[in-house]
Every structure is written in structure tokens, then in C-alpha cells.
Amino acid sequence: MATAETTRTARVEARIAPDALAVVRRAAELQGRSVSDFLVAAALKDAQRTIEDAQIIRLSVEDQQRFADLLLKAPPLAPAMKRALKARQRLIAGAK
Q1: Phi/psi at 15 (5° precision)
Q2: Residue 47 and residue 42: Cα distance in Å, rounded?
């Protein structure tokens, strides 16, 4: 994967409070980075975490057990679901 260093093709501008900028400058300095590089890295890290949080379902141990039990011992289908499955089979058979 290409790094932000090698593929900088877009510009982003943001307004930031002076006290927040001072904190960002200090953090960037501590890491030996430019403010721009620090902000890009921080934004990318947070963006990746946000996407991961949206795509991964986390369950407690109890919920994991309940989920597995329901998959392995599924309750009987409701009458409406049985009708829907039959209708789907007719549609698929008719499409061939």
C-alpha cells in the first residue's frame, strides 16, 4: 500500500482553535513529525477505527453462545416464512 508521503495529491483545510493547534504542534514535535503529517496520520488512524467499528459486530460471551445455539438449533419456521420460501422456489424455477 502506498503511503501518504508518496501519494499526496489532495489538499484538506481545517480551522482549529489556537489552543488545540498548540497541543497538536507539541504532539507532532514529540513524534518528530510535521503538523501536517501528524494530522494526516491521526485522521487516517481514526478513520480506519471508525470503519472497523462499523463493520465488526462485537458480542459478549453470553451473546456469542446464544447466537451459536440459534444457528445450530434454529427454531421452526413461521408459516409466513414457509410461504415466502415456496414463493422464492417458484420464482427461481420459473426464471430458468
Answers
A1: -95, 140
A2: 9
All residues at 6 or more sequence positions from 25 whose CB lies less than 8 Å from its CB, including other chains: 35
CB 34 within 8 A of CB 23: no
> Does 54 score more than 60 pLDDT?
yes
Q: 35-55 and 18-31 are packed helices; what angle lies between their axes, rounded to 10 degrees?
A: 90
Q: Cα(66)–Cα(60) distance, rounded to whole angstroms?
A: 10
Cell of 62: 453470553
Nine cell digits for residue 24:
497538536
pTM, to two decimals: 0.57
Residue labelled with grid coordinates 518528530: 32
